[in-house]
Write a structure and sequence with these properties.
DNA-binding, Helix-turn-helix transcriptional regulator, HTH_AraC, transcription regulation, 9 helices, 2 domains, transcription, Jelly Rolls
Length: about 300
């Protein structure tokens, strides 16, 4: 057992182990020690800051971090950190790790500053998971043990006060349904009419919900999701710009270039070049695809 309030250090060699649950350090997430570009994450991740003060960029949004700051990052999002100013323990897992458990990882806040008893409890959970992931990785019971520990950790995090203080509105569910459908179909269509047909409602209903929640139209919400994905791929990969455009439904590179410039304010090439700046520099980022007040990944 790890002493209460003390965080065990994640072991670097765990990064090479393709298990369904493991713990690593921030430095293990990228071979580039300077974090000159964001990292496109392929697993669910929780980042618990253990020392230092600085910023972590998640999908180009700078989030302040200090000891006790916890980030929840989803597969497909991009992460960039200012090292060595920050150090953290990273818990990663694959979707099957939660099969059979009554826990929803999307109930975990995307950013929270832990304090008091909550901080002690979360540190203890992460510490014990880190120790057991290393010590018992080759034992028969390790898979079940780590799954239960991850489930408990996520449940504790989901019970933290949200602090939003907002009452549910009738438009909330319509907006969430639209965003879930956009996640499934943004690579195939940007037409609001297509999403309205899939959801069995009118374009006016979708637009009214989006305006109520975000202040933006349904068309803007869809286009901003496409622009975000383009930004992720441009910043975190070396995929040719034309290929990225084709992945997002643009048959002509010029159409993709015009769309991206309209949404982000600069060309795809200029945006990609900007990724080479130091992580501590100001970042150019697209508008968020949804309002931060609504977590559309929740069911």
């Amino acid at each position: 057992m790890v002493p209460s309030g003390h965080l065990a250090t994640a072991l670097p060699h765990a990064a090479a182990n393709p298990t369904e649950i493991d713990t690593v350090t921030l430095g293990d997430l990228t071979p580039d020690t300077g974090w000159r570009r964001p990292v496109l994450l392929d697993r669910d991740v929780i980042v618990l800051t253990t020392s230092g003060h600085g910023l972590a960029e998640v999908d180009f949004r700078a989030l302040p971090c200090r000891p006790g700051t916890l980030l929840r990052i989803r597969p497909g999002q991009v992460l960039r950190c200012a090292l060595p100013q920050l150090d953290a323990t990273v818990v990663r897992w694959r979707p099957e790790a939660l099969d059979g458990f009554d826990v929803d990882a999307d109930d975990v806040p995307h950013w929270v500053q832990l304090a008091g008893e909550d901080e002690d409890a979360i540190i203890n959970e992460v510490s014990q998971l880190t120790v057991d992931a290393s010590r018992h990785r080759d034992t028969r019971a390790a898979r079940s043990l780590l799954r239960h520990q991850l489930s408990v950790l996520l449940l504790r995090l989901s019970m933290l006060p949200s602090g939003s203080g907002q009452l549910s509105r009738p438009e909330d569910e319509t907006f969430r349904r639209l965003c879930r459908e956009v996640e499934r179909g943004y690579q195939d269509t940007r037409r609001v009419e297509d999403y309205a047909e899939r959801l069995g409602c009118s374009v006016r209903t979708l637009t009214r919900a989006c305006l109520a929640i975000t202040g933006r139209s349904a068309k803007q919400v869809v286009d901003e999701r496409v622009a975000l994905q383009a930004s992720r791929l441009l910043a975190a990969t070396d995929e040719p710009i034309a290929r990225i455009g084709r992945q997002l439904g643009f048959t002509e590179p010029t159409n993709f270039g015009r769309f991206f410039t309209r949404e982000v304010g600069m060309s795809p090439g200029a945006f990609r070049a900007a990724r080479e700046r130091p992580a501590s520099a100001a970042v150019v980022r697209p508008r968020p695809p949804v309002d931060a007040r609504i977590d559309v990944h929740r069911a």
